[in-house]
Amino acid sequence: MVRTARFTEDDFIEAAMSLVAEGGPTAATMQAIARRTGAPTGSIYHRFDSRSAILGAAWNSAYASFTGALAPLLHQRQAREAALAILPWAEANPRRAAFLLLHDPVSLFEDSPPPPTQRQALDRLETAFDAAFRACIAPATDDETLARARFLIFDGPIAILRPSLSRALPPPPHAARLIADLHAGMPVAA
């Protein structure tokens, strides 16, 4: 008789994201993921070869969600709206937001890199997102304009969110006003 799986890859990915969001990269051990899901450790290893594999899958999942919210606006050259879209995305996805925006891949994968298939998937996501970003700021390509656009669309809004994310709170009520003021005072293109 065939047994149906009680736990899915998504269960383990979500558990890994939660653990990293709550306690940092070192909190997401295979044993902790097993405890969080209630699954035997062997069940995780049946789906993921290593800790870096599950963290790579979690990173790609969170990053795809984030870029999916912003890329359409970037393609439409709506820089301010893309920056503002980070707020509802973070509010709708607090665990993903804390996982992705409070941690960097270097800290997640300091022990070992994600498997090549996950790295290739991330490369595809990054290439598509970079194309959306470049479409938003085209035809400008000088370093100052690129730096300004990155700050206004990504770095500034994420910096506004980080204190709330680190305390597991929703975005502050004034966040949208701060982002809009940034864009009003310093347009994407000089």
UniProtKB/TrEMBL annotation:
One of its GO terms (molecular function) is DNA binding. Pfam families: TetR_N (PF00440). Residues 6-66 form the HTH tetR-type domain. Gene3D superfamilies: Tetracycline Repressor, domain 2. It comes from Falsiroseomonas algicola. Keywords: DNA-binding, Transcription, Transcription regulation. Transmembrane segments: none annotated. This is TetR/AcrR family transcriptional regulator.
